[in-house]
Amino acid sequence: MAQWPRAQAFTVRSHDRPVAILAPDNASREGIGASRRVLLPRLATQPASGEPRSWGREEPYD
After folding, report:
1. Distance CA 50, CA 35 (A)
2. Is residue 46 within 8 Å of 39, Cβ to Cβ?
3. Least packed by Cβ within 10 Å: which of 6, 13, 24, 31?
4. pLDDT value of residue 3
5. DSSP state for residue 60 in the 8-state scheme
6. CA-to-CA distance for 26 and 47, rounded, in angstroms?
7. Main-chain phi, psi angles of 24, to 5 degrees
8. Higher local confidence (pLDDT), 9 or 3
């Protein structure tokens, strides 16, 4: 079985444009908590789109 190199990140590209980065999870519990303390209050101030959902769960898979 092949071994993946440790601590290596990969960039996922679509049409030669970077769309995601796959990297090892080095986040600590303290870092995750700090991120939540910043993110959740910010999300609470943003209004919902208010638009009704016009698609079903199965539709993307047709």
Report:
1. 26
2. no
3. 6
4. 64
5. G
6. 32
7. -60, 150
8. 9
What is the C-alpha end-to-end distance of the chain, expressed in Å? 36
DSSP assignment string, 4-58: PPTT--EEEEETTEEEEEE------HHHHHHHHHHHHHHHHHSPP--PPP-S-SS
- Return the residue matching tokens 């986040």: 27
Burial of 22 per CB tally in 10 Å (0-12, 13-18, 19+)? exposed
Dihedral sign, Cα of residue 40, residue 41, residue 46, residue 50: positive
SS3 state of residue 59? helix
What is the pLDDT, as a whole number, of residue 41? 92
Determine the Cα–Cα distance for residues 18 and 12; give it in Å rounded to an integer.
Answer: 6
